[in-house]
Amino acid sequence: MRLPSRLRLKESRDFARIRKEGSSQAGRFFVLALLRDDSLADFRFGLVTGKKLGNAVQRNRLRRQIREIIRAARSRIRPGFNFITVGRWRAPAATYAELEQDWLRLARRAGLLQNEPRP
RNA sequence: CGGGUCGGCCGGAGUGGUCGCCCGUCGGUCCCGUUUCGGCGGGGCGCGGACGGGAGGAAAGUCCGGACACCGCAAGGCAGCAUGCCGCGCGCAAGCGCGGGGGCGACGGAGCAAUCCGGCGUCACGGACAGUGUCACAGAAAACAAACCGCCCUCCGGCGCUCCCUGAGCGAAGGUGGGCAAGGGUGAAACGGCGGGGUAAGAGCCCACCGCUCCGACCGCAAGGAAGGAGGCACGACAAACCCCAUGCGGUGCAAGACAGAACAGGAGAAAGGCCCGCCUGGCCGCAAGCCCGUCGCGCAAGCGGCGGGUGGAUGACUCCGGGUAAUAGUCGCAUCCCGCGCAAGCGGGGGUCGGCGCCGCAAGGCGUCGUCAGAUAAAUGACCGCACCGGAGGCCGCGAGGCCGAAGGCACAAAAUCCGGCUUAUGAAGGCCGACCCACUCU
RNA sequence: UACCCCGUGGUGUAAUGGUAACACAGGAGAUUUUGAUUCUCUCGUUCAAGGUUCGAGUCCUUGCGGGGUAA
Known about the structure:
With 119 residues, the chain is α+β, with helices and mostly antiparallel strands. Helix content is 34%, strand content 19%. It is built from 3 helices and 4 strands. It has a 4-stranded mixed beta sheet with strand order 1-2-4-3, sandwiched between helices. The termini are close together.
């Protein structure tokens, strides 16, 4: 399953809108915020890795790992959502398995995941 | 010769599988235009398409300099800033390399000491008789000489002492005038040091040695050094205080700047006033709006880099420099025309002209290289799994020396953002080179 | 990415190159029957490391940390 950058949220007003009007779930390593948008055929997502998380190398690495988690779960993500994932300060020290477990738990609780994979 | 510790320098991180990200080219597919129905052109893409390419030595910090762009075209002056021993080399500059000179520091040696010599380390190392300023506390005195305690002489004084007692001699405290700077002690720093002579006491007052200042044969391209002579000493420190001298620098920064589309809103013409990115000499003038998003700038470029072999010089290695060889040169800039697509910026293709440099050829004309292939923009270059490597908790075998298995964990610092040169800081595995020290061995 | 500022007790501010000062807060003590008030004492690597200087919070260099601006 591919994950091109076309699905990325890039504009500041999108992020602000989701944080203001959407709902959010907080876990050990991430904060997941999402907002329904039925005009979308697919979903769109944004990533936030603030300066508290470390230097550029650590932030880039975390972002890639989140991207990989979303790519792996893409077939089960319900369409019609904009969501953003914010890294928390503990995340750079965690392993990939820990990050994936935490993110999936948040996504399930937020109702982002469906049980049956989409074709 | 071997081993070890510490420091410096070079060196930039193994391998396989599955999946993914960004850019380019070529396909595939859908749509649009056109069509002589074969195609052609363009645009889009969600294709589990193909091929090629895809972070660093510091990409970092932003401490300097340059390119480039704009601003008043950049001229002069003021202000401000930067640099600062000498020579050579490289460089546009910042700066770097090598050599030399001088200062300072601890150490070693000589000497009674002052001081001198030596190698090592280190230095932002122009100027303190151009001027101004500062030097706290302590101390008598802190920058130009002076004198608190003190030493000495003269005179006054005279409560004391001695003697052969109407007298004579000695004389404390205190005071007047004068000479001196040895000693005291303070301080970061006190107007030379040590020894001798000299003197009422002293003093470079005189002498030897040393230091200092001036002159200086001679040496050196120079910074500077210096035999010798003279002066008896006068000349404190701070310019990373103001400053002076010399040299250099216009300012702002790719969010520079150019353009396109869309959106938005009134007012005015003179004057007042405003603007021109330190100020002046000097100019200009409708105001407001201008974010974001998109296109360009933006990477086929610099006489740029890499590989192999050999040589001379400097250096501790690294490295740097000189000359030669490999080695062979068709590209660049600007203007302009045509076609297609796109709302447009622009993109793609083609033609011709002008200018510049270069190889081959008489000429028309032709030619070809080891590479130059990061270009994102909420920002690509990775994720996961395995094997290597380090690591050794713990376990097993053995009488023992020792051998075998092996978990956790680890596998640096850190990621382009307009480009380039330097500086600084971080880290630096394996392997290699150099220096200092220690141990062992051999020889003397 | 580029540029510009700032670092002094727990907090907010001072300090011509010469003993780091003031207020509030905290702690201990005194006064008071107790408390408040008042008084005394206490609390510092001046962000770090080098350098200049006799002497550095101050001057210089390099780092570290924080903040700001970019119609």
